Amino acid sequence: MKTIPFASFEGMHTPLRQEMLDAFARMYDKGWFIQGQECQAFEEEFAAYCGTRYAVGVASGLDALTLALKALGVGEGDEVIIPGNTFIATALAVTYAGARVALADPDPVTGNMWGKGLEEALTDRTKAIIPVHLYGQAAQMDEVMAFAQKHDLLVVEDCAQAHGATFRGQKVGTFGQAGCFSFYPGKNLGALGDAGAVITNDPALAEKVRQLGNYGSDRKYHHLYPGMNSRLDEIQAGFLRIKLRHLDDYNAERDRLARRYLAGIQNPKITLPQVGPDRNHIWHIFSIRCDTRDQLHDYLEERGILTVSHYPIAIADQPAYAAQNLPRLPVSSRIAATELSLPMYVGMTEEEVDTVIRALNQY
Ligand SMILES: Cc1ncc(COP(=O)(O)O)c(C=O)c1O
User: Fold this and answer.
1) Lower CB count within 10 Å: N or C terminus of the chain?
2) ω into residue 49 within 30 of 0, thus cis?
3) How far, in Å, is the centroid of ligand 1 from the Cα of 362?
4) In 3D, which of 164, 184, 185, 190 has the Cα closest to residue 243?
5) What's the rounded mean pLDDT across residues 130-151?
């Protein structure tokens, strides 16, 4: 039995093999590995892709969020609202910045942040919101931005799963003060290791993120802040430059696969993902819901189809946050109990998609 993996690099990496190896050889021979021309060029190219003035390369998506919050002055005594069903890194960034996590329950249809959940999470300590463009589709950004304006809150977007996603034609990461990206290998735009970036139109914010990620220094051996070491390696930047040129094609391919899933899966036990109005979906994750999720996972695995749950434990139930007694929110808990992500990768064949569809329809 041929296994259908949850994700695979082959479809992207095999055609790029020689170009990537040539880039590696060039960088290897040059012998310049930190803060050089590759990083600068990638920052310019990624900013142009997103439609912002600046992009600052950092070491990971978690660092991008942490540095953006710190650079905006979020810290002790502040609360930051995040979705109750996000990946743990969104919460950890708030904690690393010294602030407290507050949870908003997402829209039950899209699973993404909306205005309603924010109302309930607001307190007089709320300083910022992190909308997460989860699974690859934008949060309800009109409502999030209206709420932020009304209550004078900062907005730092978590775009780790949404490279190239748009809301009303505008790229994610460009709505708030800063947009934060992960280039973890499995992302739609992934490096060959950890990497991340912060995008912004604000020159002072870009500069401060860069300084905080470089030991808090504005020039060599002169330190304005107790910063950290979080920089984008030259080698990763060089690889990312190559893959960035193909990102729209990769996203289009994922969209074709997703449409095939959407047209083919017909089983009353399974709820298909829904794309909210006025936005595209870049299908980082093809997320279905099923009341018997764990059984469905095992049933598919027995047929050689590998799936993953994003995420099986809501933030409020994570041991790391037990001491905070965060509220258990109904939609977030329900998603944690029912979510299952289907195989989705560049290079996945129509036959493979159809095998998954058949298995789901027979479940
Ligand atoms: C929603 C979300 N936020 C933040 C991160 C953190 O990114 P990284 O793994 O690069 O630190 C990820 C990815 O892992 C993520 O999916």
Assistant:
1) N
2) no
3) 34
4) 190
5) 98
pLDDT one-digit tens code per residue, 203-259: 999 999 999 999 999 999 999 999 999 999 999 999 999 999 999 999 999 999 999
Residue 299, classed as helix, strand or coil, is helix
Burial class (CB in 10 A: 0-12, 13-18, 19+), 88: middle
Residue list, ligand 1 pocket, CB within 6 Å: 60-62, 86-87, 89-90, 132, 158, 160-161, 182, 184, 194, 196
**Beta bridge partner(s), residue 2:** none
Contact call for residues 82 and 104 (beta carbons, < 8 A): yes
* Amino acid making up residue 309: S
Q: Is the pLDDT of residue 1 over 90?
A: no
Span from the CA of 89 to the centroid of ligand 1 (angstroms): 6
- Phi and psi torsions of 167, nearest 5°: -130, 125
Closest atom of ligand 1 to CA, residue 65? 4
The count of residues in the chain is 363
Burial bucket for residue 263 (CB in 10 Å: 0-12, 13-18, 19+): exposed
Give me the residue label for tokens 């699974």.
Answer: 135
Give the pLDDT mean for 69-76: 98
Query: If DSSP codes are grouped into helix, strand and coil, which group holds residue 129?
Result: strand
How far does the centroid of ligand 1 lie from the alpha carbon of residue 86, in Å?
A: 9
Determine the Cα–Cα distance for residues 168 and 176; give it in Å rounded to an integer. Answer: 15
Query: Measured from the CA of 86, which atom of ligand 1 is nearest?
Result: 1
For residue 95, the CA-to-ligand 1 centroid distance in Å is 15
* pLDDT at residue number 225: 96
* CB 134 within 8 Å of CB 85: yes
How far is Cα 264 from Cα 156, in angstroms, rounded to an integer?
37
What is this structure's pTM? 0.98
Q: Using pLDDT thresholds of 50, 70 and 90, give the confidence band for residue 23.
A: very high
